[in-house]
């Protein structure tokens, strides 16, 4: 029987993590389970930084981005000694189970702890990148799209006024979910992300031909290219410079960066986080171990933690086809 659980947030913070913490704490309290919240991701386990989490500690946090537990990356966990030390901290606090809110990296960390820990472990997918298998959406993705859109719409205004070409870099480490979704919703003229062909200095013409074609058809006007981070070897600013040189027109680069991680979670993220946080606790009570609480086709479901990083989930193939079709026209 589960009496005490731990919870932590790890990796890139995502709007809605607070909502997930809240739901887990409230669900645990309703089942007479004590909750310990670790600070700064896995570092809290290694440094003994934690607090008791009671329902009053999670009051009125659902609307805030970031995470009340703080998040971090933790190098020590990549070693077997680090994982053993983390497991020891869980055992010392007599925790029957632990909830890890994070991305597939954090789940790999959870698996390494599991090699030394006798309790149960469950994951809750929280990352703006949406690059976790076993759930249609991760907590934070919907908010990140809206934040990116707000910024892109503003850049469109100034791009329109100057009839300029803008390259806007969006986050996503090695996946194009944010870039494709925000690019489509913003009506970007071109989208560059890892799932499309790579852009290299020697194939800039793939970018340039559609720009020249658009200029021939509609004259000079604003032109927005959204670019996933890490898409061009020397970076998006260098890509804008290379385009300026090749086209003979000034192109501007704008790196949206961490603004995409912040802000009030949108309704969809608050609801998803509430469902997954509550479901994670319920599934721990039911005996789940080394699983992730996800949602697929509006059905809550468990998915093996070990498979969450397999990258079998794909960015919307319909939108990919449509984007390639209109961009090549
Ligand atoms: N292969 C791994 N082995 C052990 N721990 C890992 C591993 N990958 C990631 N982690 C842990 O999870 C943390 C967060 O992972 P990261 O990939 O940065 O973010 P996310 O969880 O959002 O994908 C890392 O800093 C590390 O502590
Ligand atoms: O905040 P940092 O350490 O610079 O990390 C940036 C990375 O974190 C993210 O915002 C979120 O990634 P994770 O959720 O996988 O940690 C990525 O989009 C980005 O590449």
Quick rundown:
Helix content is 40%, strand content 18%. The protein is α/β, with parallel strands linked by helices and 329 residues long. The strands form 2 sheets. It has a 7-stranded mixed beta sheet, with helices on both faces. A 4-stranded parallel beta sheet has the order 7-8-6-9, sandwiched between helices.
Detail the topology: elements first, then pairings.
Layout: E1 4-9, H1 17-30, E2 34-38, H2 43-46, E3 50-52, H3 80-92, E4 97-102, H4 104-114, E5 120-125, H5 141-162, E6 165-170, H6 177-186, E7 190-192, H7 205-218, E8 223-228, H8 236-247, E9 251-255, H9 267-285, E10 291-296, E11 299-304, H10 317-327
Parallel strand pairs: 1-2, 1-4, 4-5, 5-10, 6-8, 6-9, 7-8
Antiparallel strand pairs: 2-3, 10-11
Helix pairs in contact: 1-9, 3-4, 5-6
């Amino acid at each position: 029987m589960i009496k005490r659980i731990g919870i932590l947030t790890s990796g890139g913070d995502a709007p809605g993590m607070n909502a997930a913490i809240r739901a887990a704490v409230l669900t645990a309290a309703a089942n007479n389970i004590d909750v310990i919240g670790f600070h700064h991701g896995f570092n809290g386990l290694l440094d003994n930084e934690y607090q008791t989490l009671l329902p009053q500690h999670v009051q009125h946090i659902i609307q805030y981005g970031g995470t009340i537990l703080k998040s971090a990356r933790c190098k020590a966990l990549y070693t077997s000694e680090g994982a053993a030390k983390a497991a020891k901290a869980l055992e010392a606090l007599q925790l029957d189970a632990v909830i890890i809110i994070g991305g597939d990296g954090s789940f790999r960390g959870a698996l390494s702890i599991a090699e030394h820990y006798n309790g149960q472990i469950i994951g809750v997918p929280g990352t703006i990148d949406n690059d976790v298998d076993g759930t249609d959406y991760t907590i934070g993705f919907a908010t990140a799209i809206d934040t990116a859109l707000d910024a892109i719409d503003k850049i469109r205004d100034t791009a329109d006024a100057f009839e300029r070409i803008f390259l806007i870099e969006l986050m996503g480490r090695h996946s194009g979910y944010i870039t494709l979704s925000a690019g489509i919703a913003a009506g970007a003229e071109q989208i560059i992300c890892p799932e499309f062909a790579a852009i290299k200095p020697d194939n800039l013409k793939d970018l340039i031909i559609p720009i020249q074609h658009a200029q021939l058809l509609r004259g000079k006007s604003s032109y927005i290219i959204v670019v996933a981070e890490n898409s061009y070897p020397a970076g998006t600013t260098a890509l804008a410079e290379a385009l300026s040189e090749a086209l003979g027109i000034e192109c501007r680069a704008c790196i949206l960066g961490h603004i995409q991680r912040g802000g009030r979670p949108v309704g969809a993220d608050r609801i998803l986080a509430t469902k997954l946080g509550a479901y994670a606790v319920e599934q721990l009570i039911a005996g789940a171990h080394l699983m992730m609480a996800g949602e697929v086709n509006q059905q809550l479901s468990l998915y093996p933690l070990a498979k969450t990083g397999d990258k079998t989930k794909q960015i919307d193939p319909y939108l990919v086809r449509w984007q390639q079709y209109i961009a090549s026209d």
